[in-house]
Amino acid sequence: MDTRKTTILFRLALTSILCTSLFVSCQQDKELDDKTRTALIEKGKQISASLSGALLTKLSSEIQANGTVEAIKYCSVNALPLTDSIAKLEKVKISRVSHKNRNPANAANEEEMALIKNYIAQIEKGAATAPVITTGKGKYTYYAPVVIAMPTCLKCHGKPDTDIDAEVLNALKTLYPEDQATGFAMGELRGLFKIEFDDKR
Length: 201
Ligand code: HEC
What we know:
Helices cover about 50% and strands about 15% of the residues. It is of the alpha+beta class.
């Protein structure tokens, strides 16, 4: 190969490296300033409070009216029409994730596992827990701890031998053959509430 060709090739290689690094740096997230963080935390708290309230009301009234087996489908944020309307209005994606998930779609990823471990450690120490905002993949994500805070939760997430009725256990096994979400006790971390904000605000 003559020197001219080598020089052109070298320049091409250099240009493509430069372009790639420029592209990569543009993809990285800008720093999250305090004002934006506070606003996102507030919005996240608002959304999760209204959804948790609606979920609890639905779950409790269904257990009372038709029994725990019938209520099984109501412990899903996706079962709430409110979830869709909030998601559309606020341009967010709402879900829950867990280290011991019931629905396979709710398994925590590696980053979420780290958050969960941290929350568990805080709870064990008796320290207060607070929501966090993470950045990455061009979006902001709100996470808040979900704790087993009332005995009702144990009807479906407690100890299989003592807390969960046999017929409920059977129904859960049929619907969720890979269920890991039993054996919880009061005060334990059940998972994370997750809100993905799809626009940079
Ligand atoms: C009537 C049974 C029942 C009760 C009571 C119940 N859950 Fe659930 N829970 C379920 C089912 C079923 C799922 C899976 C929902 C789905 O498919 O998305 C679930 C899923 C969850 C998840 C999502 C993560 C995962 O494992 O899939 C969280 C978090 C959760 N429950 C917390 C609670 C809390 C907190 C309470 C008490 C306020 C509670 N649940 C009460 C049946 C119940």
